[in-house]
């Protein structure tokens, strides 16, 4: 498989674009015409060929541009990557997992050659060829977590597990939906989820924690989460809210199709072998409304989901003010026909939009 | 999300292994070493992990958890040390009497219910008898990563002091062995008294020893989260009983020498499990109806839950009475 990497930006002129292939493989998160929280976990053991679920760490056309955007964020704010002192071993676990997975899943792009603790890592898209000693930090230009997550799309939270609780003790967070590692560092699972509405009352987090504590080595899990972002900006952080929050007020009926993006997180969960920590990669995918509605089923369904979403959720996800504009746009792509179950585009079987 | 739904299987992922060595250590304990049958490397594991060994004992499947005691950094081999239990239900006897080099077995991926707290500035290990096994891996780990530790190891006698000589030879200033038959005892109160801030204590051994360490540490003002323990319970034999599984719509007869979980599995019902020793919580099952007495033996449910009669851990707990209906 050869991937043509895009030259694009996630800030300033926002030249980010999805190819037709990227649109069709977008991880559309709604399996039915309505949405409510659930602990929607499943095993992360591959998926249909070409889908974002196929590989352990999906590499797509945005890889190089996303890594450039991460470097910009880190240069401005080094605290986006942190690791408490006891989490270094988990950092090496993360490095090993990503290097082994990528070199096996994308042998034409990544190579890992191991001779005992002497490792040679080749990352062709980023032009890296580096030999280092596994578990010896002095042989890397930075800590192992920072080193490897500067070369892997998506955010990474690394959770220490102690006494039936998870703690946010390390991470690399530059493509986040309005949360801050620097604020959450050291917090336990219930503390960092405290701002989420409704779910606590529903017992969601208690059940989710129980599930996560039992994630086993060799049996990773995954789920999807979603929100909305105006302009294809990866770094929607609290630290930079003054830069992107105001952009929510720039939507008009004319530009909403291009500017409004559905933001989906593919969240995966891995038990790390040497540290017993839990790795929580949060991979962000963006799609413009105007691209999404080219899949008729998704256009119909997104309209119904956004229309019927409880107020609290629309508020928490930060788009309640723009919901009327969104519905006006999306309603033009919903002809009222029924939709097929499941998340897939079903382009061959679902009828085009009836006008 | 139903992107590509896959049902979660009961138990952990498995590894096919071939027995590479069987090493008798003394009258009671034998070490079993394994290689992967496919010739590959084992996954690395964190010290304190156990594996569930799957044995085929004349058509009957036995699943017993054992601590991994090999060096976690050595991915060419996994090793366990098994103490023969002549009174038990036969898993350890099967290992001792039947398993030979070249035999094939199935191991689960490692699962850790007894991890090292990596924040610890110092780690004090308290072992009783066969409880030495997880500390073998922890010591190897800390030696490699450069952590401070000491071991206090209580054994019945010199003849049954598994690995005591090896450990003493390798770490003479860190290993302290106490022999019951010489009336030697771990001076726990003195030991807890002199430790630097940030020390963690770990105990693995008989139930009474674990309880003693927790109680003594608490009395000396140690924070609960700095005292760690692991005790696997072997399912105990008991009177046979009947159980109705509501979802599966079958009645299961639980024999004297099998656990409730084993009986459920024998009837072809895919029930969740992980440690099979009452510690991990994975097999927790809702009780829909009960007319009788529970024999709760797990460490997972709290006292209120044991008294409430709405939940049972089928890996170690039993029941006597007229009627038991489970949501399974």
| Global shape of chain B | globular
Shape of chain A: globular
Name the CATH homologous superfamily of the largest domain in chain B: Nucleotide-binding domain of ferredoxin-NADP reductase (FNR) module
Most strands sheet of chain B:
7 strands, antiparallel
In percent terms, what proportion of residues of chain A is strand? 15-25%
Which pair has the most extensive contact?
Answer: A-B, 36 and 30 residues
Oligomer: heterodimer
E-strand count of chain B:
17
The number of distinct helices of chain B, counting runs of at least 4 residues, comes to 7
- The counted number of beta strands of chain A is 10
Total discrete domains of chain B: 3
- Helical fraction of chain B: 10-25%
Mean pLDDT across the residues of chain A is 94
Low-confidence segments of chain A: none
Helix-strand pattern of chain A, N to C? Answer: HEHEHEEEHEEHHHEHHEEHHHH
> What's the level 1 CATH class of the largest domain in chain B?
Alpha Beta
Keywords:
heterodimer, A: 355 residues, alpha+beta, seven-stranded antiparallel β-sheet, three-stranded antiparallel β-sheet, 10 strands, globular, B: 328 residues, alpha/beta, Elongation Factor Tu (Ef-tu), domain 3, Rossmann fold, Ubiquitin-like (UB roll), 3 domains, five-stranded parallel β-sheet, 7 helices
How do the strands and helices of this protein lay out in sequence?
The complex is a heterodimer of chains A (355) and B (328).
Chain A: H1 20-24, E1 42-43, H2 63-76, E2 81-83, H3 88-105, E3 110-115, E4 118-123, E5 128-133, H4 144-149, E6 155-162, E7 165-172, H5 181-184, H6 189-192, H7 204-213, E8 221-230, H8 241-244, H9 256-259, E9 260-271, E10 278-288, H10 289-292, H11 296-308, H12 311-316, H13 323-331
Chain B: E1 14-24, E2 29-36, E3 49-57, E4 60-67, E5 78-83, H1 91-98, E6 104-108, E7 111-112, E8 122-128, H2 133-145, E9 149-155, H3 164-170, E10 175-179, H4 188-193, E11 199-204, H5 207-219, E12 227-230, E13 241-245, E14 250-254, H6 260-266, E15 285-295, H7 303-308, E16 311-312, E17 318-326
Parallel strand pairs in B: 8-9, 8-11, 9-10, 11-12, 13-17
Antiparallel strand pairs in B: 1-2, 1-6, 2-5, 3-4, 3-6, 3-7, 13-14, 15-16, 15-17
């Amino acid at each position: 498989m050869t991937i043509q990497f895009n030259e694009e930006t996630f800030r300033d002129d926002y030249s980010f674009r999805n190819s037709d292939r990227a649109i069709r493989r977008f991880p559309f998160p709604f399996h039915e015409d309505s949405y409510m929280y659930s602990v929607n976990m499943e095993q992360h053991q591959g998926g249909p060929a070409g889908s974002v679920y196929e590989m352990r760490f999906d590499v797509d056309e945005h890889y190089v541009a996303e890594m450039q955007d991460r470097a910009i964020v880190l240069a401005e704010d080094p605290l986006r990557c942190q690791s408490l002192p006891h989490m270094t071993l988990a950092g090496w676990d993360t490095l090993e997992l990503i290097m082994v997975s990528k070199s096996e899943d994308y042998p034409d792009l990544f190579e890992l050659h191991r001779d005992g603790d002497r490792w040679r890592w080749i990352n062709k898209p980023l032009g890296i060829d580096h030999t280092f000693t596994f578990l010896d930090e002095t042989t890397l230009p930075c800590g192992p977590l920072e080193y490897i997550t500067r070369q892997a799309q998506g955010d990474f939270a690394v959770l220490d597990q102690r006494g039936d609780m998870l703690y946010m003790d390390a991470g690399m967070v530059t493509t986040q939906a309005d949360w801050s590692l620097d604020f959450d560092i050291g917090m336990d699972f219930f503390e960092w989820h405290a701002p989420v509405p409704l779910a606590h009352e529903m017992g969601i987090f208690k059940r989710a924690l129980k599930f996560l504590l039992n994630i086993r080595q060799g049996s990773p899990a995954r789920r999807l989460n979603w929100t909305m972002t105006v302009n294809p900006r990866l770094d929607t952080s609290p630290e930079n809210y003054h830069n992107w929050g105001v952009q929510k007020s720039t939507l008009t009926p004319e530009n909403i199709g291009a500017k409004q993006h559905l933001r989906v997180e593919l969240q995966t969960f891995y038990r790390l072998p040497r540290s017993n920590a839990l790795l929580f990669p949060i991979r962000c995918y963006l799609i413009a409304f105007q691209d999404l509605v080219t899949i008729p089923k998704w256009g119909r369904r997104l309209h119904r989901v956004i229309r019927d979403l409880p107020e609290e959720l629309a508020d928490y996800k930060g788009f309640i003010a723009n919901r009327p504009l969104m519905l006006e746009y999306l309603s033009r792509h919903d002809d009222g026909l029924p939709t097929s179950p499941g998340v897939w585009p079903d382009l061959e079987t679902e009828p085009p939009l009836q006008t | 999300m139903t992107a590509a739904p896959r049902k979660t299987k009961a138990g952990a992922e498995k590894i096919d292994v071939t027995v590479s060595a069987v090493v008798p250590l003394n009258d009671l304990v034998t070490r079993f070493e394994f290689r992967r049958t496919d010739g590959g490397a084992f996954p690395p594991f964190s010290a304190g992990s156990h594996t569930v060994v799957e044995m085929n004992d004349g058509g009957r499947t036995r699943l017993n958890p054992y601590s991994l005691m090999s060096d976690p950094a050595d991915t060419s081999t996994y090793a366990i040390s098994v103490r023969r239990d002549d009174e038990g239900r036969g898993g350890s006897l099967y290992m001792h009497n039947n398993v030979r080099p070249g035999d094939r077995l199935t191991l689960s991926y490692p699962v850790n219910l007894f991890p090292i707290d990596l924040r610890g500035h110092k780690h004090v290990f308290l072992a009783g008898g066969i409880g030495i096994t997880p500390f073998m891996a922890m010591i190897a780990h800390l030696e490699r990563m450069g952590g401070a530790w000491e071991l206090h190891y209580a054994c019945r006698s010199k003849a049954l002091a598994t690995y005591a000589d090896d450990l003493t030879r390798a770490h003479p200033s860190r290993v302290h062995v106490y022999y019951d038959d010489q009336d030697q005892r771990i001076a726990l109160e003195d030991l807890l008294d002199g430790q630097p801030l940030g020390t963690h204590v770990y105990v693995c051994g008989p139930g009474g020893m674990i309880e003693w360490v927790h109680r003594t540490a608490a009395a000396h003002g140690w924070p609960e989260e700095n005292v760690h323990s692991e005790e696997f319970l072997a399912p105990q034999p008991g009177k046979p009983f009947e159980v109705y599984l509501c979802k599966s719509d079958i009645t299961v007869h639980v024999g004297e020498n099998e656990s409730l979980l084993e009986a459920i599995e024998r009837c072809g019902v895919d029930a969740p499990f992980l440690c099979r020793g009452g510690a991990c919580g994975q097999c927790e099952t809702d009780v829909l109806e009960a007319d009788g007495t529970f024999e709760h033996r797990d460490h997972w449910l709290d006292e209120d839950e044991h008294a409430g009669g709405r939940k049972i851990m089928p890996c170690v707990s039993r029941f006597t009475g007229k009627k038991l209906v489970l949501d399974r």
